[in-house]
Design brief:
This is Helix-turn-helix protein. Helices cover 49% and strands 5% of the residues. The chain is mainly α. It folds into three domains: 2-83, 434 Repressor (Amino-terminal Domain) (Orthogonal Bundle), CATH 1.10.260; 84-218 and 290-331, no CATH class; 221-289, no CATH class. Helix 2 crosses helix 3 (32-39). The radius of gyration is 22 Å and the shape is globular. 37% of the residues are buried.
Length: 331
């Protein structure tokens, strides 16, 4: 964090147009006080702020974070630099020499339901049938994919990334655990569908396939068709949503896609998933799964490796502090 603020300060000083803190703060949407405190080390820059700074100062986000130059040896910002995508997780892996296992690739033409069923079996084999209780841990255990929940501002809800021998998924912190499950399952589909999402790309090609994969993974077709939705009570509906880790809106979309009538209990879904759950299960928000995506979160093996590296003087802890959104002194 100390080095980031110094690089921001240096980039401001080297501009020839005489940038003032007030002008910088105004153009990137910060208050002057927030910028001043960030430059003095009293607060950290958010992901959004670093992205805006990189565009304004015409330097790459990678350089601001790590000091790494661009491929041409400069710090200049590439014309199409995806400033909303930060390479901090992959850099954190490389700092301590960790890699993730190679991912199994789905055969060409495999159906979404078949792919989702295979993924569910793999997740269940790693942590048990109720893998949705902690989907990030289940994905790490089954596939070795690192799952990060970042509390800094992000311009995406979740993003799957592939860089060399490292695969990971970043999820934006949210208090809606069923939304976190959905976007995490979607990005798992992006990585498994055979279309690599390289660091810096947006994964648009696989997006439609991955959204349907997520629905099928969280709500298996066979189970959906076993339920008599016409006779389902509101309490049974709330139990389904809780056990499957999905929202009422996601369930309705899945039923419509399978041409299954919604049933009268889903009328209560108009009140919202949270209201429906709390109505039937008042203690739901106290359950640990309700805070699964409130963040921050990083893979346990990466956390342990960075702590060991700090003890041995191999890393300075700045990457870990940024990912955990905590002052370096607290580590």
């Amino acid at each position: 964090m100390e080095r980031i603020r110094l690089r921001v300060h240096d980039a401001m000083l080297t501009r020839r147009d005489g940038l003032t803190q007030a002008k910088v703060a105004r153009q990137i949407g910060m208050s002057r006080d927030s910028l001043s405190r960030a430059l003095n080390g009293q607060r950290k820059f958010s992901a959004r702020e670093l992205g805006e700074l990189s565009k304004m100062l015409e330097v790459s986000v990678d350089w601001l974070i790590s000091g790494a130059p661009a491929t041409d040896g400069t710090t200049r910002l590439p014309r199409h630099h995806p400033t909303e995508i930060l390479a901090s997780p992959v850099d954190a892996y490389r700092e301590v020499g960790l890699f993730t296992p190679a991912l199994p690739r789905l055969e060409a033409g495999v159906g979404i339901e078949t792919a989702a069923s295979a993924a569910a079996e793999k997740l269940s084999g790693a942590v048990g049938r109720e893998f949705v209780r902690d989907l990030p841990a289940a994905i790490e255990a089954a596939y070795g994919i690192g799952v990060f929940v970042l509390s800094q501002e992000q311009l995406f809800d979740a993003r799957a990334m592939h860089s060399g021998e490292i695969n990971y998924i970043m999820v934006r912190a949210t208090g809606s655990w069923y939304q976190g499950n959905l976007v995490l399952a979607r990005e798992l589909g992006v990585l498994l569908c055979g279309r690599d999402t390289e660091t810096g790309s947006n994964g648009v090609i696989a997006a439609g396939w991955a959204k349907r994969f997520a629905d099928a993974l969280l709500m298996p077709e066979a189970y959906i068709r076993e339920i008599n939705w016409d006779r389902q009570t509101p309490r049974e509906l709330a139990g389904f949503l809780w056990n499957m880790g999905v929202s009422a809106q996601t369930l309705m979309r899945r039923l419509d896609a399978l041409s299954v009538p919604r049933g009268p209990a889903l009328v209560h879904a108009d009140e919202g998933t949270l209201q429906l759950l709390l109505w039937q299960y008042p203690g739901a928000l106290k359950n640990h799964r309700a805070g699964a995506y409130r963040g921050p979160r990083i893979p346990a093996d990466l956390f342990a490796a960075h702590l060991a590296g700090m003890r041995q003087g191999l890393v300075d802890g700045s990457s870990l502090a940024w990912l955990l959104d905590t002052p370096l002194t607290d580590l």
